[in-house]
């Protein structure tokens, strides 16, 4: 049975798609078996708004509700907007977050960030590298060479519409210059987080 929602700490994670515009060499999806040896995140079909709302239950029991994958959640922009609106109608106490690769404006061919204003409290964007060359090597983006700059632009634009913005990088041994990537985040004026590489340990 597929898992649409799963709990990590006090957060509820929503697995809304398996589609993605990257093919990262470090993607947790390439790890065999269930996520955290517990959850089957491979979807037979993408869940509807109603199915996601039902899987959440009472949102007030969580500190955060996070749209994520196995895949790139903003590929399902309309579903995110609908579900976030349903949560906000029930409570303002839970933080709503999106974990994204930052390709959405390229994917949709427009600036989608104003559409998330008032619905999303926090966006965590995978910057993943210190430059386009490293990004392309590690992430194999469908959009090609222009994608890294588009991710940087997405971070800049997110700051205008979302209260909390973070750029993140996977702590991949030897492959990424973490300090240079952190400096890009600092220069953009957003917080920075090094995510654990799944071979070490996967925690939110
Ligand atoms: S962007 Fe995320 S879901 Fe997509 S391939 Fe990379 S790590 Fe996997």
TrEMBL record:
Keywords, ordered alphabetically = 4Fe-4S, Iron, Iron-sulfur, Metal-binding, S-adenosyl-L-methionine
Q: Which cofactor does it need?
A: [4Fe-4S] cluster
Superkingdom of this protein's organism: Bacteria
Radical SAM core domain ranges (all copies): 6-204
Q: Which Gene3D superfamilies match?
A: Aldolase class I
- Record flagged with keyword S-adenosyl-L-methionine: yes
| One Pfam entry name | Radical_SAM
Any GO MF annotation of the entry: 4 iron, 4 sulfur cluster binding
Q: Which InterPro entries match?
A: Aldolase_TIM, Organic_radical-activating, rSAM, rSAM_sf, rSAM_TatD-assoc
Q: What is this protein called?
A: Radical SAM protein
What organism, scientifically named, is this protein from?
A: candidate division WOR-1 bacterium RIFOXYB2_FULL_37_13
């Amino acid at each position: 049975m597929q898992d649409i929602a799963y709990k990590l700490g006090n957060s509820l994670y929503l697995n809304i798609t398996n589609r993605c515009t990257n093919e990262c060499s470090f993607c947790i999806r390439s790890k065999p078996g269930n996520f955290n040896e517990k959850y089957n995140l491979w979807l037979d079909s993408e869940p509807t708004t109603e199915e996601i709302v039902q899987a959440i239950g009472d949102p007030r029991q969580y500190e955060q509700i996070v749209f994520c994958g196995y895949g790139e959640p903003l590929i399902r922009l309309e579903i995110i907007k609908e579900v976030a609106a349903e949560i906000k109608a029930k409570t303002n106490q839970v933080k709503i977050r999106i974990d994204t690769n930052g390709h959405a404006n390229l994917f949709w061919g427009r600036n989608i960030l104003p559409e998330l204003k008032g619905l999303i409290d926090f966006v965590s964007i995978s910057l993943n590298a210190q430059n386009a060359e490293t990004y392309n090597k590690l992430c194999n983006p469908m959009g090609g060479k222009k994608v890294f700059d588009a991710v940087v632009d997405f971070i800049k634009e997110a700051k205008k519409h979302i209260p909390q913005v973070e750029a993140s990088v996977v702590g991949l041994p030897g492959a990424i210059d973490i300090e240079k990537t952190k400096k890009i985040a600092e220069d953009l004026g957003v917080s920075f987080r090094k995510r654990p590489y799944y071979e070490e340990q996967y925690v939110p």
